[in-house]
Specification:
Protein name: MarR family transcriptional regulator
Radius of gyration: 17 Å
Number of domains: 1
Largest sheet: 3 strands, antiparallel
CATH architecture: Orthogonal Bundle
CATH topology: Arc Repressor Mutant, subunit A
GO molecular function, one term: DNA-binding transcription factor activity
Number of strands: 3
Low-confidence stretches: none
Order of helices and strands: HHEHHEEHH
Strand order of the largest sheet: 1-3-2
Keywords: DNA-binding, Transcription, Transcription regulation
Helix content: over 70%
Mean pLDDT: 93
CATH class: Mainly Alpha
Pfam family, one: MarR
InterPro entries: HTH_MarR-typ (IPR000835), WH-like_DNA-bd_sf (IPR036388), WH_DNA-bd_sf (IPR036390)
Structural class: mainly alpha
Shape: globular
Length: about 140
């Protein structure tokens, strides 16, 4: 395996295991990591359309529709009419706002455990490299 192949293999494996273990932590709280990403975006930026969430999270529309439907059914988000009847704005419910601190604490503790022994400088370097990789991939699309 080349150094490049090993790097991306490790990245893929780390991402999968991270999501699996985070799902185990969050499932007792009524959500999964894919739902957390949407909840986090809505909490951070406020209501958004499904198209905006798809674009930001780089998720296909059918997948986003299924995830949002599950969040609506669970009572964590609601849909309201946007600028026209076809556009739906997605926003957090009061139940989600009140539960958010528990979700955030659980995720933060899990992230801290995952980053144990990695310095702030190393984290900054990783962020810089990930942004560069993302930029390289966006250029090639």
């Amino acid at each position: 395996m080349t150094k490049h192949q090993e790097l991306f293999h490790q990245l893929f494996q780390t991402s999968r295991i991270f999501a699996k273990n985070l799902n185990e932590k969050l499932s007792d709280l009524g959500i999964y990591s894919s739902q957390w990403t949407i909840i986090y975006c809505l909490k951070r930026s406020g209501p958004a359309t499904q198209a905006e969430l798809c674009q930001y999270l780089n998720v296909e529309a059918p997948t986003m529709t299924r995830t949002i439907t599950r969040l609506v059914n669970a009572g964590w988000v609601s849909k309201t009419t946007g600028r026209n009847n076809r556009e739906k704005r997605i926003e957090l419910t009061e139940a989600a706002h009140s539960t958010y601190p528990l979700w955030e604490k659980t995720v933060s503790e899990f992230e801290e455990t995952a980053l144990n022994g990695i310095t702030d400088a190393d984290i900054k370097t990783l962020n810089t490299h990930f942004q560069q990789i993302l930029g390289n991939m966006n250029i090639q699309e």
